Model the fold of this input.
Amino acid sequence: MKNAVSGLGLAPDAAMVTFPIGMFLPGSDITPVRSRKREFYEGLTRWQSGFAQGTAGAPALLCVEGASHEDALNKANNLLLTNLWGDGLPLWPATRERVDWILRGAALPRTHVIGKFPPRGGVTTVETCAVALAMAGGRPEYLPVLIAAVDAFLDAESNSDQLQATSGGPFPVVIVNGPIAREIRLNSGFGCLGPDPQRPAGASIGRALRLLQQNVGGALPGIGTMAIFGAMRYTNAVFAEDEAALPQGWQPHATERHGYAPGTNSVSLVFASGVTNVQRRGAKKETPEEDVLNGMWRMADFMRTPNVAALQGYEKGTPGIMMISPVVAKMMAQLGWTQASIRQFLWENSKIPLAQLQRAGAPAWLAIDANPVTRESIKFNPWPIALKPENIVLVVAGGNHPTHYHWLQAHSPRVIGRIMRVPESFDRLLADADRDLGCGSDACRI
Amino acid sequence: MVTLEFHDPSGTLEITQPHARRLATLEGKRIGFVSNEQWQAYRMLPLLKEMLEADFPGIEVLPVDTFPQGNALIGNEETAALVKKSGVDAIIVANAA
Done:
């Protein structure tokens, strides 16, 4: 509640009468409302905010002292946790020196305001992003990706004010296109949604974004975000498309979805609420055609679900992201499949019969949707999970292995794109990274 | 002794508008509801209406469905215009999520 009002520019306090969740369930006893009516009346008449208008001040500096560096570091981490600014994993305190180092990756002034992070409405500057990236263990060359992702996140059309707070637990997925991905060691291959010591950028960038969501945006579990489960929320998902592996004639995601020229450094932000592995490979003596078709049917079968939490994206968003490994994309392309024909197949074959929608109570959710296009979609039988095939996001990424697809079920009104800006000194930052981390992200040293 | 100085990561807040001014009393006032109809609003709001009418002489609490209801409608300009035109002294916004 306090987040909601401060996010609207109101003072960060509110007249409140709080009740346990049980009172808001069907068939509940609501007589506690009657017994506490004086508190309601107080809130409607005498209550006054304790804050004056204006800015709450410049970001503060905190200080800890310890008998040794390790003791001070320990105290700093304790302070971050007790102030509800941590995520349970060790953090780098964002010292001036570290933040200034991270800011070498900025193409904009440190005081440049990107926006206000919902729902709390914390003012988010380039420096705010650098602080989060410093805490998350990031490096300067990651900052352009984080700033572009934050800018996309704060786009009004992303609906991030609602998605931050909702019980559905969506998490941002940041797809990176362009040469910067390889340059900064962002993973597009094996394990691209998880940790990789040779390609560590995604973990820090995603963790920094999550810290901003929590610390600046107020998305604390059970308070600012009612995400019941909160999956993928340590680091969100930040990965690159494997553009080098795109079959001939296939376009990068950012070109298809946002119209950016191939080779442009960009991010594309989608809110997802799930990550599902779909085993696609056959088990016996299938022909290549049978192998592909069986796998596509299995994919469509996973997609064929009335995901009523994702209706906001029915017209212009996406029902989800399909991740295809390079070897599968190549095999499918050789058999004549295109990005368009894959989407068309999945869209056609994931349609849901009306009777199935009805037994799941989905028409009631369609009926109350804010978008008339979505409300009217109830006339379709079978009902497509998105208004058009083009809404399905298709990305070539993951290890060069044929056995699985991945499906990131979306909870996203839009797919928001942003072109990145890098500082003039970016090549120097990359050279520093080579010095610090070693060259050869292709060389497996395991 | 080692000292570590580091940034508060929570950013700043900017207060750009005041909370709605409260009425000194609810007696004799005309009150409306704008509801998104979620989380038992269909029971809670009539109860609130009943309590207000019982406790404040001369109060008029408009029926819950006087203004457009639902997530799709409560935040739009048309609804705001209807509320202003109605001449109510105050609105209780029931925006449950």
Observations:
- The mean pLDDT of chain B is 89.
- Chain B is about 25% helix and 20% strand.
